[in-house]
Automatic annotation (TrEMBL):
The protein, known as: Fatty acyl-CoA reductase
Main EC class the enzyme belongs to: oxidoreductase
Lineage of the species this protein comes from: Eukaryota, Viridiplantae, Streptophyta, Embryophyta, Tracheophyta
A GO BP annotation: suberin biosynthetic process
Organism: Arabidopsis thaliana x Arabidopsis arenosa
Role, per record: Catalyzes the reduction of fatty acyl-CoA to fatty alcohols.
Length: 489
């Protein structure tokens, strides 16, 4: 057990999957910034070959603003030298055997060198095609485990999941692994993961035999994934397939130390490498931007429900600390729920007030350059009431418009349909009544702080949610970050 994370990372060889993803990049940047004497980082990305993987990493990771602090500290030449010496781009795909690595010599070399395997690769679309989601989130996780077992020096597999594998359960949600044999739906139906794969293949075969178009196959497989998730008690394909991935890891890990990180909604960086870095619209951010643009005037939300968010740099710090703590341990199967609802909760009602305050003082501009005025968002606590409100407020008046201006009608109807789609996808989260128990994470953080203060080290790996001032973070860090790094690009 080693709490000095900087020392732990020295001379380590680490394999990271999903390396062009938001969280993986924050994780990789942190390692390179605090420990340039890491031995090697093998970064697995989907690409046709290793040269294409190198190009993808350069354009989608190292040339991004995220790496500007490293660039400023080292200068372009030294940063390029560091990357060429320490980073090995690997073309691969976790949905395939051997992680899709075609270069057998490189694969064997990696399996001789790797100390830590970090699996961040995932498809995070709530309603992804069932075949795609099973391939990556469920059996892809098993492929990573099987690869890690072949790494002769492997000390740990660190797997990034999501806190929402809990489904829609209310109350305090335990920080413990799944036991597959105990998973039954409310009718007593036991979950059989191999049967799920068999049913998926069967459905895909039927669709291909019917000569369906690719578009129809995609729609059908998306619908099938949602049906299977809901049958077994999960709200969508994403969290259902991530849950099954965790179950397979637990059942097949054997003696390999396994740490599962379950973050809640990951938001922009709190402080490192600088405050407010984010990429893409993530969960609650779609609502924030739609509101700021004046498009979203009402939403399905219980004002008293807690919005569990956690900044990306805190998740990366928890990942590194957990790896340093458990690498090489015996009988390790730890779960860490990394979030804020238990120790530092903020409700959707409070967020509404903060958003109104921000966009009143910092109005966005419309396409013609005029300032967009926002009103306080109307929050409606049940789906039935929300549907009724949308019908009375928008759908009925729209029928009159249909009679006089069919083009305007189609445009407005499309906007209403997009709001309803957004609401249906987010319903399980905005009405969520669970609080994530995080005692393992809290103990990990407390032990880390004690170790750092004992050694008079600066706090380099903080992930204590209690330090976040939500109002200050949202107004001065997160929303400006969204506008700078997402909206303006």
């Amino acid at each position: 057990m080693q709490f000095n994370c900087v020392h732990f990372l020295q001379n380590k060889t680490i394999l990271v999957t999903g390396a062009t993803g938001f969280l993986a990049k924050v994780f990789v940047e942190k390692i390179l910034r605090v420990q340039p004497n890491v031995n090697k980082l093998y970064l697995v990305v989907r690409a046709s070959d290793n040269e294409a993987a190198k190009k993808r990493l350069r354009t989608e990771a190292f040339e991004k603003d995220l790496f500007k602090v490293l660039r400023e500290n080292l200068g372009d030449e030294k940063l390029n030298t560091l990357l060429s010496e320490k980073v090995v781009p690997v073309a691969g795909d976790i949905a395939m055997d051997h992680l899709g690595m075609k270069d057998s010599k490189l694969r064997e070399c990696i399996q001789q060198e790797i100390d830590i395997v970090v699996n961040v690769a995932a498809t995070t679309n709530f309603d992804e095609r069932y075949d795609v989601s099973l391939g990556i989130n469920t059996f892809g996780a098993l492929n990573v485990l099987n690869f890690a077992k072949k790494c002769v020096k492997a000390q740990l597999l660190l797997h990034v999941s999501t806190a929402y594998v809990c489904g829609e359960k209310p109350g305090l949600l335990p920080e413990k692994p799944f036991i597959m044999e105990e998973i039954r739906n409310e009718n007593g139906l036991q979950l059989d993961i191999n049967l799920e794969r068999k049913l998926m293949k069967q459905r895909l075969k039927e669709l291909n035999e019917q000569d369906c178009s690719e578009e129809d196959i995609t729609l059908s497989m998306k619908k099938f994934g949602m049906e299977r998730a809901k049958l077994h008690g999960w709200p969508n394909t994403y969290v259902f397939t991530k849950s099954m991935g965790e179950m397979l890891l637990g059942n097949h890990k054997e003696n390999l130390p396994l740490v599962i990180i379950r973050p809640t909604m990951i938001t922009s960086t709190l402080s490192e490498p600088f405050p407010g870095w984010i990429e893409g619209l993530r969960t609650v951010d779609s609502v924030i931007i739609a509101y700021g643009k004046g498009v979203l005037k009402c939403f399905l939300v219980d004002v008293n429900s807690v919005c569990d968010m956690i900044p990306a740099d805190m998740v990366a710090n928890a990942m590194i600390t957990a790896a340093a703590t458990h690498a090489g341990g015996s009988n390790v199967h730890m779960v860490y729920q990394v979030g804020s609802s238990n120790q530092n909760p903020i409700t959707y009602g409070e967020i509404r007030e903060i958003l109104f305050c921000f966009f009143t003082k910092n109005s966005l501009r419309s396409r013609n350059g005029s300032l967009i005025t926002v009103t306080k968002m109307k929050l409606i606590p049940t789906m039935a009431l929300f549907s009724l409100y949308m019908t009375l407020r928008y759908k009925l008046p729209l029928q009159l418009l249909k009679l006089v201006d069919i083009i305007k009608y189609k445009n407005k109807n499309r906007k209403i349909d997009s709001v309803m789609r957004l609401v249906k996808l987010y319903e399980p989260y905005v009405l969520f009544k669970g609080i994530f128990d995080d005692r393992n994470t809290k103990n990990l953080c407390t032990n880390k702080k004690e170790e750092e203060s004992k050694n008079s080290e600066t706090l380099m790996f903080d992930f204590d949610p209690k330090v976040i001032n939500w109002r200050n973070y949202l107004i001065n860090v997160h929303i400006p970050g969204l506008i700078t790094h997402v909206l303006k690009k």
